[in-house]
Every structure is written in C-alpha cells, then in structure tokens.
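Researcher: Structure prediction, please.
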Amino acid sequence: QRGFLPVAVLNYLAMLGWTMPDGRELFSLSDFYENFTWDRMHLGGPIFDLEKLTWLNGRYFRETMSDEDLVAYLKETVFSEEKIRAIAPLMRERIDVGEQFVPSTSYFFCGDVDFDPVSIKPKKRSFKELRKILEKFADALDRQLAFDPESLEAFAREFIAKHEWSGREFFMPLRIFLTGSKATPPLFDTMTVLGRALCR
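Model: Predicted structure follows.
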C-alpha cells in the first residue's frame, strides 16, 4: 500500500544477509539464484533500514521502468479504479471543483501525514498517555479481522471503554494521526478505505 515494488523488497531482503560478487545492489531474483553462494552470507544481525529500501525502490522506478510501465503501475495501484470508487462517495459533499479532489484526499494515497502535534493532545491527558493508548490501539487493530465501518466503530468504542478513554478524547487525535486533518469524511469510513496497513 505504501508503493514499494515487490521486486525491490525481494532485492532488499536479499541484501540484508548477502552481497553480490560484483557488489551490485540492484539485481533480480534470477540474478540472486545464479550468484548465490553460502560463503557470501553475513552472520551478523541484519538491520532493516526503511530509508535504504526507499532508495532502492526509487532506483527501480528510475532505472527499470519505462514511462508506459510507470503509468500502468500507478493506474493499477495508487490510482486504481477500485480505490477511486471507494474514495469518491466520501468526498462528494466536500469538494466544489474537481481539482480539489487531489489535495483533499492526499492522506488516502500516502502513509505519512503532517499535523501540528499540539492540536492532537486531549486537554486532560499527557502526550505520553496519548502515545501509549495509540500504540495499544495500533496493536489491537492488527487483530481486528473485520475492517468495515460498522465493525471498526464497534471495535474502537469497545477499546476506549476498556481503557477508560472517552470518544471525545480519543477519536479526534486518531483522526488527525490518520489524515493530518480535523475535517475529513466519517472516521471509520476513512479507516476502511485507508486499509489496515496505512492505518497501522
């Protein structure tokens, strides 16, 4: 969902514990098979570096994709018809001209959002308490099987009741963390369209 190419992820995972004989960092799975030897394995604990994976993924976009390939990829993944169909009904009442759709929906397409940290803190809670409850919520969300709006709302309300938080304290910070904005389509509809990975 974040836009990492499977071939780039495989390439990166192979590099975590092994190196190509010629030092290449960009290689296919078949290159890996053909060149693999046990003596090039590293026994030290590998460190997963998201910046390095992002850099490698960028190389695949620039060095292995034609313009046509990139357009096809974007239409199939980032701007798929299925995704646009899910977002459009949520935005119908929130835009006046078509060009507003893009800035109004940016959080549906990217995992990182900008927000003012001060705007998310409930009046009677500390930042430490907020961080702790959101971490617990993220972990619980991983175990929530049904991801439709009704199921998510029931799950979230049960969660905050169990942890003795009110909806007023919890739902606005959650909305801002997910979207970067206080004004969005209904929270649980938004979460459903975002999907588990981006919510997490």
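Model: The mean pLDDT is 92.
Researcher: Thanks, that helps.
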